Amino acid sequence: MSSKSVVFYGIKSEFISIACKLAEKMYSIREPILFLCDNEEEVDFYNSRLWTFSRLSFIPSGNKKALPIEDAKFCHVWFSTEIVFYNNPYCLLHNGIDITKFGDISSFNKVIDIFDLNLIDNAKARAAYYKNASFLEQKTWVQNDSSWKPAEL
């Protein structure tokens, strides 16, 4: 059995473009995602941006306002303000929100935590939370102009 993992991405640029690229990558390796949002406005915004992100690829996605729950199983990315497993997600993706308020994350195998580099102390606190939740494998990448470099939290 492989260990649970967290990948942190410290960013300087717009969150949604990074999140869409990662969702596209997860789709290519067939790992469904729960895209966790702070509120319904974020659900609507991020879902609409994923639909228009790339003309070259289609990533099936949805949320409970857009689709019946029974159709979530056809969505690679499910947008929600709560921890739900309608699309049997392998991965939890979020924008550096306070993950502790959402409840149990132990059913996920991977977490992608994208955070603003100005909020690194919050990311460090989440790293400790993930470790306590048995996400022992943790990697951090930070955006450096046009490239990424490994880092530590």
Q: Could you spell the SSE succession in H and E letters? A: EHEHEEEEHEE
Helix content: 25-40%
The chain-level mean pLDDT equals 91
Tally of helical runs: 3
Distance between the terminal alpha carbons, to the nearest Å? 26 Å
Largest sheet geometry: 8 strands, mixed
Strand content: 25-35%
How many separate structural domains?
A: 1
SS class? alpha/beta
As residue ranges, the low-confidence spans are none
Rounded to an integer in angstroms, the radius of gyration calculated over CA atoms is 15 Å
Assign the CATH class.
Alpha Beta
The CATH H-level superfamily is DNA polymerase III subunit chi
Strands ordered across the widest β-sheet = 3-4-2-5-6-1-7-8
Silhouette: globular
- Provide the CATH topology: Rossmann fold
- Beta-strand segment tally: 8
**Judging by the overall fold, what is the CATH architecture?**
3-Layer(aba) Sandwich
Could you describe the 3D structure shown?
The radius of gyration is 15 Å and the shape is globular. It contains three helices and eight strands; from the N terminus they run E-H-E-H-E-E-E-E-H-E-E. 31% of the residues are buried. The chain has 153 residues and is an alpha/beta fold. The protein has one domain: 3-Layer(aba) Sandwich (Rossmann fold), CATH 3.40.50.10110. Strands 3-4-2-5-6-1-7-8 form an eight-stranded mixed beta sheet, sandwiched between helices.
What descriptors fit this protein?
single chain; 153 residues; alpha/beta; Rossmann fold; 8 strands; globular
